[in-house]
Design brief:
single chain, alpha/beta, five-stranded parallel beta sheet, two-stranded antiparallel ribbon, 8 helices, binds (phenylmethyl) 1~{H}-pyrazole-4-carboxylate
Amino acid sequence: MRIDIVTIFPEYLAPLDVSLIGKAAAAGILDIRVHELRTWTHDRHNTVDDSPCGGGPGMVMKPEPWWEALTGLVPPGTEAGTRLIVPTPSGRPFTQRVAEDLATASHLVFAPARYEGIDRRFVEAAAERMPVEELSIGDYVLAGGEVAVLVMVEAVGRLLPGVLGNAESAKDDSFGHASEGGMAGLLEGPVYTKPATWDGREVPPVLLSGNHAVIARWRRDEALRRTAAMRPDLIEGLDPDALDKKDRAR
Ligand SMILES: O=C(OCc1ccccc1)c1cn[nH]c1
């Protein structure tokens, strides 16, 4: 997968060079390119923003530099398989399901905005050339979309084949929609490792029983318990078929 990120703070994306995503890039699974938006400005001050039409606080990012960047990175006629992602508090929620969908793209272009956002006409013009996703990573306002790009690139990147070693599989993720055995839209329950007793606290004996069916049932119960406690909204949305008959009995 090729990933282009256009930003006025390229150094904000440095974390993409380390760990999981850094290794995937080194392995050629991800081709991540970070670009300075001001490359596509031509005035003496490399202007990327201006005051909002209609008044109001802050500044708005001008459409021209973004359009030139997009056209330079995705020349007309080469849009197939490319999706433009615009992080914004006013976007559709970015969820695991959205990450799974984005992981099927061959080319993602991220447009993290600063200030009050990008002139609407950029998004409208881009949408005539390729799918545009305006996505929110949460209900709060950041100074810029770069942090959201880090979140999305990690969430999408770890789903790509070869990125996670088989030691850290993505198949049983929280919110995972894996078929059998996955937590199918539930939060993950508690996890434990050695020692069997620490600080006078024991690992739940079932986990040391070696009885995998009982362990799976216990983990599912814990996932349901935690989801009901922390995220009752997810319980509402659960696919009834995803709950087997024993769950329903609870
Ligand atoms: O603040 C965010 O993006 C930066 C941004 C973009 C447009 C206008 C203001 C701020 C954000 C919050 N949740 N998801 C994204």
